[in-house]
Design goal:
Helices cover 73% and strands 5% of the residues. A two-stranded antiparallel sheet has the order 1-2. The chain is mainly alpha-helical and 123 residues long.
């Protein structure tokens, strides 16, 4: 499925909030991402149309199987790049910011080589 960076950011945020809080509300996503609730509402509509999320009867945002799969993939890429940068001596704050930029720029082959490098050098 072809997704954009914003979609991936929202899915990763929803996954992170689900893992830490259990239930996710639109206001939680807005607060975490530093955006307005109306912006979140528009994006949630798009994510529902893409069948990445559903809203339960209590109004909680839930990832579908496809949404969770993509969110986990994006999170895995982000976490590995973040760890590599920190392992190279980059400050945690800078590593977190730049991992987001790098994850968007590299393809699957580069990510796979980066995983191999990390296992070899840092494990």
């Amino acid at each position: 499925m072809n997704t954009n960076n914003s979609t991936e950011d929202y899915l990763r945020t929803i996954l992170s909030l689900q893992n830490s809080k259990g239930c996710v509300r639109a206001i939680d996503v807005a607060t975490d991402m530093g955006v307005t609730k109306p912006t979140v509402s528009v994006t949630m509509k798009r994510l529902r149309e893409l069948q990445m999320i559903y809203i339960d009867p209590k109004g909680h945002i839930c990832l579908t199987e496809n949404g969770r799969s993509l969110a986990e993939e994006v999170s895995k890429k982000h976490m590995l790049i973040n760890k590599v940068l920190i392992g190279l001596g980059v400050s945690p704050k800078t590593a977190a910011q730049e991992a987001r930029l790098i994850e968007r720029a590299i393809g699957e082959e580069t990510f796979e080589r980066l995983e191999e490098f990390y296992e070899r050098e840092f494990s």
